[in-house]
Amino acid sequence: MPAEFRVSRRAWTLAVCGVIVAALLAVAALVPLPFSIAVPGGTVNVLGNDRGKPVISISGTATRKTTGQLRMTTIVATGPDATIRLGDVLDGWFDEERAVLPRDSVYPVGDSVEEIERHNLADMRESQDDATAAALRYLNRSDDDIDVRLRLAHVGGPSAGLLFSLGIINKLDGDGRGGDLTGGRTIAGTGTIAPDGTVGPVGGVELKTLAARRDGATVFLVPKDECSEAKANRPEGLKLVPVTELKDAVSSLRALSTGKGEVPSC
């Protein structure tokens, strides 16, 4: 009798624990979580047009006709007021075309949707100014006689800086040897840019590589510090080229274009 009682008590304890765990999981499945779900976004060729208008317009000096493409990449994340639950998070973790990101890393804490949009547009404007400064500095050109205008509709943030700079350089100087910096290829990438040409990380590269390959890119320029993230989800047929400075990106593209010189890889 005592042995049977001990078995029954053990079974009862396990049953109670199971009910508690099930209840906790049920509650967890309903509680909103502080995450955003991101997916690959659109890409835009900065050497071409966006919504019918040139992305890069240059006046005050001669420009050259370009070939190939330089595509900036984006991700699309759920809004700051979206409700994300445990099921969404689990789905994102097991889907290579979705990423689960802390909401704080995507949207500043406490900001409204309107404030976030203003913040992103301000970042984009600053990035455009920095991209122009970095490109002209690389070319040893003065902005006194050169007017560069950058236009990209409905895209915020600083992550297009590197591609903007490369686009300006390509329109003004190409590969520096009479050819095109792209070598006729579709090149994609991401990265912030500082006026001195320093390339910085941006996040979301594991999704941006998917967007790049989807839209025909065979080469992806990635901030060196984010190589591991890019490699983790690299689609077949996409070469990852790490960069730390604008001159690194130009040198790598020149080597790819001419077939001469070493091209680093993540």
UniProtKB/TrEMBL annotation:
Record's keyword terms, sorted: Membrane, Transmembrane, Transmembrane helix
Keyword Lipid biosynthesis among record annotations: no
Alphabetized InterPro entries for the sequence: Lon_proteolytic, Ribosomal_Su5_D2-typ_SF, Ribsml_uS5_D2-typ_fold_subgr
Matches recorded under Pfam families: Lon_C
Domain Lon proteolytic: residue ranges: 156-248
Residue ranges of the TM segments: 12-35
Name this protein carries in UniProt: Lon proteolytic domain-containing protein
